[in-house]
Amino acid sequence: MGSLSEDRPGDTGLAGSQRRVALMCVLIFTFMGMFDSSVITVALPTIARDLQVSEAAAVWALNAYNLAGAMTILTSSALGERLGFRRVFVSGVVLFTLASLGSALAGSLPWLVAMRFLQGLGGYAAMSVSPALFRTIFPLRLLGAVLGINAMVVALTASLGPTVGGVLIGVVHWSWIFALNVPVGVVATWLMLRSIPDDRGRGGPFDSAGALLAALTMGAFVLGVGQLGQLADAGSGWAAGFFVVAALCGGLFVLRQRSTPAPLLQLAIFRHRRFSIATCTAIAAFVGQGMAFIALPFLFQSSYGFSPLASALLFTPWPVAIVFAAPLSGRLADRYGAALLASTGLLLLGLGLALLALLRPAPASTPDIAWRVFICGLGFGLFQTPNNREFMSSTPEAMLGNASGMLTMSRTFGQAMGATVVSIVLSLYAAGERAGQALFNATGAIAALWVAAAAVLLAAVISALRLRPKPISG
Fold first, then answer.
1. Most C-beta atoms within 10 A of its C-beta, which of 104, 179, 292, 318?
2. Residues contacting 300, CB < 8 A, separation 6+
3. Mean pLDDT of all residues belonging to the chain
């Protein structure tokens, strides 16, 4: 990271000697938050047995975190603009750390769910402003490299988290997966307060009504997506109701943002062409990624007969490829721009998904699956960092908070949309099956992969709109 601390004339942000410590602070929390999210999925069966609840009920320990985050992403990023990005980040880390302690001490599921909701509030508050922090810490010429390092940490944690989590659960009580966050959170907070100067933000009134409408919109949408998994029961009625609430509140939110002098989300940000293209590209790409992450486990387990653990390990080439591709694509984006890299990465991701959909009928060999998954990860790694750089470099500094929040929101919304589409595709394929057969069958999973590849191809087309042909001379 030596080049990250090099000072050049005209550089903005912190002095070179301060950058590495500041980056380490943000990366520590990135690791902590991602590790917590990846480990709890492994711990859910143990938590259910220990708290004497059903596994379906225990899933709320995971859902509560994501629900809290979806409801407050825009609010947290808007508070960052008004109060200062460091203040919101540190406050989020402190809340996440305290709620981790509460989760470790939980003796009942309701208490654990409540603490996990608070963890989500803190975790997503910090995540929603971390891209804006990178923009204020580093000069623009290094933004892609920094975002690439951050993506590498995320991918590395995602790949190691389930394995390390499985070992931890086998050795110590599940509460330790939360308790370990406490000392790490204290160190991260101390380092952040020492290494990054306090930014006061721009102040001004806060759009409380807009924050409430944004929370209701995303909360209802996420709950509706969750109900789609119960289409065979009474879930369809609940899902429709939640989606209606989300649509109504979303419409009111847009009207509110148009009319209030101090909106939660400055709609003028979408007048910046590069930002709007980056947003649409990200949403379409994460629809495809979200679909793949849901469809592939069903394909691996129901069609090819892999165990849940083996199915999880088959995903490992995806984050491993990102570990190599993301830092490289970030550095290249700083030199050559994001459009070509992101578009190429999306084409590779779409190719990988299509290759997975073309897998021969069972039995499929592990190497035959692994190299196709690796192509998906390679493409995603080439796409994500340059596109994230576009989010943060294409808007004025007065809109950094909104840009940072939209970066996180596009991922959350896209993945939720992907889950919605997967549920619809799989339910359509299951409609003609005999009673009692599993809803998520291999044929439906393959169809979902083709739809995912189409969504990624759409993202590539949108991304290519940023490519400008060189003028013909002569």
1. 292
2. 306, 310, 311, 314, 369
3. 83
